[in-house]
């Protein structure tokens, strides 16, 4: 009996000495995904005495979000339809009879810039007064922030997450539309602020146009109105046009309001409000989609895309940012594909989005040329082109 007890104690001591604390690794070690995408991390036991229990935690000890799922054996962590609050470090904890060990991974959520300008416009100052506008931008990757006034880049004071435009004494030349632009790999966002310098003879300011709705859906045979407003001094003249087509013959324009009656499918497209005075011009856009009026016994008629690019002509200087928007009307879903006419590849640094945007952060002289967008759905495809000219000042 004594010999049996001694053997059990010896076996227990040997197990304690020989048992190994688990060692784990995580693949991938870090990941970056866009909002709405999914990602998985696998925690793998490299060595250690079995059995090993695996558990996932946030390093900040906050509970796992409701869109985070753990696989049956605890090794795989999956984040579905990623949100910004999913960003951060995740820890895999491995435990066995000999102890515990951990390994961490980092998840970064990419998203297009969000911009806030303080103060919001229109900003009124008198001649000689200081002007200060702060543009605060967030986004992943961290966006670059620039200011422009009436299309001219401005020198600013920049810190880690904001960019401040300051003028010691306002003069007539500071009146107009100031634009804060934030850009990263996920997109470009602009916020416009009108600065009005009072005390200037004539109160001269360039126009700034805006529309009541950027997108409208109307029913065939009905009437639709599009409203455009514009500020500026002297008061700008407002006119309407349609991209790559004349305005429908049954239209009226009164007080900046465009009215279309007896709508047809051919009236779908991009409508442009243009505000002009002696100091410049400004445009705003409304996308109109005219659908058939169906009864409960009728089926929707599928249609191939009708494609346009906005703008279809663009003149830039080296170092400027290029942004083209491909628009398509037709049965969804619609996929967009960009190419450069006469070239096998797109310029270095060119980026496209699933929404049909073409972005180049800083253009070069060699980027001049014609760019083609092809829109495709299950019915067919169509294309449009835009001419880009890059010329040194």
TrEMBL record:
<dbReference type="GO" id="GO:0005886">
    <property type="term" value="C:plasma membrane"/>
</dbReference>
<dbReference type="InterPro" id="IPR007110">
    <property type="entry name" value="Ig-like_dom"/>
</dbReference>
<dbReference type="GO" id="GO:0030424">
    <property type="term" value="C:axon"/>
</dbReference>
<feature type="domain" description="Ig-like">
    <location>
        <begin position="22"/>
        <end position="108"/>
    </location>
</feature>
<dbReference type="Pfam" id="PF07679">
    <property type="entry name" value="I-set"/>
</dbReference>
<dbReference type="GO" id="GO:0007411">
    <property type="term" value="P:axon guidance"/>
</dbReference>
<dbReference type="InterPro" id="IPR003599">
    <property type="entry name" value="Ig_sub"/>
</dbReference>
<feature type="domain" description="Ig-like">
    <location>
        <begin position="113"/>
        <end position="196"/>
    </location>
</feature>
<dbReference type="InterPro" id="IPR013783">
    <property type="entry name" value="Ig-like_fold"/>
</dbReference>
<keyword id="KW-0325">Glycoprotein</keyword>
<dbReference type="InterPro" id="IPR036179">
    <property type="entry name" value="Ig-like_dom_sf"/>
</dbReference>
<dbReference type="InterPro" id="IPR013098">
    <property type="entry name" value="Ig_I-set"/>
</dbReference>
<feature type="domain" description="Ig-like">
    <location>
        <begin position="207"/>
        <end position="291"/>
    </location>
</feature>
<keyword id="KW-1015">Disulfide bond</keyword>
<dbReference type="GO" id="GO:0007156">
    <property type="term" value="P:homophilic cell adhesion via plasma membrane adhesion molecules"/>
</dbReference>
<dbReference type="GO" id="GO:0098632">
    <property type="term" value="F:cell-cell adhesion mediator activity"/>
</dbReference>
<protein>
    <recommendedName>
        <fullName>Ig-like domain-containing protein</fullName>
    </recommendedName>
</protein>
<feature type="domain" description="Ig-like">
    <location>
        <begin position="305"/>
        <end position="389"/>
    </location>
</feature>
<keyword id="KW-1003">Cell membrane</keyword>
<keyword id="KW-0472">Membrane</keyword>
<dbReference type="InterPro" id="IPR003598">
    <property type="entry name" value="Ig_sub2"/>
</dbReference>
<feature type="signal peptide">
    <location>
        <begin position="1"/>
        <end position="19"/>
    </location>
</feature>
<dbReference type="GO" id="GO:0070593">
    <property type="term" value="P:dendrite self-avoidance"/>
</dbReference>
<dbReference type="Pfam" id="PF13927">
    <property type="entry name" value="Ig_3"/>
</dbReference>
<keyword id="KW-0393">Immunoglobulin domain</keyword>
<keyword id="KW-0732">Signal</keyword>
């Amino acid at each position: 009996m004594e010999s049996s007890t001694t053997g059990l104690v010896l076996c227990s001591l040997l197990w304690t000495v020989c048992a190994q604390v688990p060692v784990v690794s995580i693949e991938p070690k870090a990941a970056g995904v866009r909002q709405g995408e999914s990602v998985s991390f696998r925690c793998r036991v490299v060595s250690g005495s079995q059995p090993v229990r695996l558990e996932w935690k946030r390093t900040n000890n906050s509970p796992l979000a409701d869109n985070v799922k753990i696989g049956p054996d605890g090794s795989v962590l999956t984040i579905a339809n990623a949100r910004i609050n999913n960003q951060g470090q995740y820890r895999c904890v491995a435990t066995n009879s000999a102890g515990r060990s951990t390994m961490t991974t980092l998840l970064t959520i990419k998203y297009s810039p969000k911009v806030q300008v303080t103060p919001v416009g229109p900003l009124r100052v008198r001649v000689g007064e200081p002007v200060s506008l702060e543009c605060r931008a967030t986004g992943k990757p961290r966006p670059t922030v620039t200011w422009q006034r009436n299309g001219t880049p401005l020198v600013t004071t920049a810190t880690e997450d904001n960019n401040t435009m300051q003028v010691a004494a306002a003069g007539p030349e500071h009146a107009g539309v100031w634009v804060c632009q934030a850009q990263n790999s996920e997109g470009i966002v602009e916020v416009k602020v009108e600065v009005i310098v009072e005390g200037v003879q004539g109160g001269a300011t360039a126009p700034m146009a805006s529309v009541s709705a950027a997108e409208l859906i109307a029913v065939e045979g009905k009437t639709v109105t599009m409203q455009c407003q514009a500020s500026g001094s002297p008061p700008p003249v407002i006119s309407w046009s349609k991209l790559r087509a004349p305005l429908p013959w049954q239209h009226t324009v009164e007080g900046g309001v465009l009215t279309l009656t007896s709508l047809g499918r051919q009236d779908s497209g991009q409508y442009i409000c243009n505000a002009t005075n002696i100091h410049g011009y400004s445009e705003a856009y409304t996308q109109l989609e005219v659908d058939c009026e169906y009864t409960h016994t009728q089926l929707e008629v599928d249609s191939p895309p009708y494609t346009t690019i906005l703008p279809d002509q663009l003149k830039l200087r080296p170092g400027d940012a290029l942004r083209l928007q491909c628009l398509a009307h037709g049965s969804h879903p619609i996929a967009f594909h960009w190419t450069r006419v006469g070239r096998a590849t797109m310029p270095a640094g060119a980026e496209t989005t699933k929404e049909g945007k073409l972005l180049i952060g800083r253009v070069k002289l060699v980027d001049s040329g014609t760019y083609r967008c092809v829109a495709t759905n299950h019915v067919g495809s169509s294309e449009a082109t835009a001419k880009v000219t890059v010329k040194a000042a």
